[in-house]
Write a structure and sequence with these properties.
By secondary structure, the protein is α+β, with helices and mostly antiparallel strands. It has 2 helices and 2 strands, in the order βααβ. The protein has one domain. The chain has a two-stranded antiparallel sheet with strand order 1-2.
């Protein structure tokens, strides 16, 4: 007799804090712009790679780069208005990873501040 194999989706969620600190204004600018610039560079690399592999124009990714550039400009304008001498900025940057797989996934905690 024929038996149907049932696929079960395994889900796992992990969270850690990439950044969780208070900075002087100039340091906060460096941290924030570094994160944004690294993400833009990463997406641009993906766009280029996809284009070389299959000619994909990656419209969604190009839109995401433009969104990040706009956020960066707005953030730059906002931070320029603040006074360096009496300003400290707390930055919290949690990362949430959700894994969906047809295979079992390790159940490990990622409770770390990098």
């Amino acid at each position: 007799m024929w038996k149907q194999k049932l696929k079960v989706m395994t889900k796992s969620m992990h969270q850690f804090k990439l950044v969780n600190s208070t900075y002087e204004l100039s340091e906060a600018r460096d941290v924030l712009f570094s994160l944004i610039n690294d993400k833009i560079n990463s997406i641009n690399g993906t766009i280029f790679s996809r284009y070389l592999k299959n000619g994909d124009d990656s419209e969604h990714l190009r839109n995401r780069v433009e969104e990040l550039k706009e956020v960066k400009l707005k953030l730059m304008d906002y931070l320029l208005e603040l006074n360096d001498e009496d300003c400290r900025i707390k930055i919290s940057c949690p990362v949430i990873i959700e894994i969906e797989s047809n295979q079992s996934v390790p159940n490990k905690e990622l409770d770390t501040v990098l």
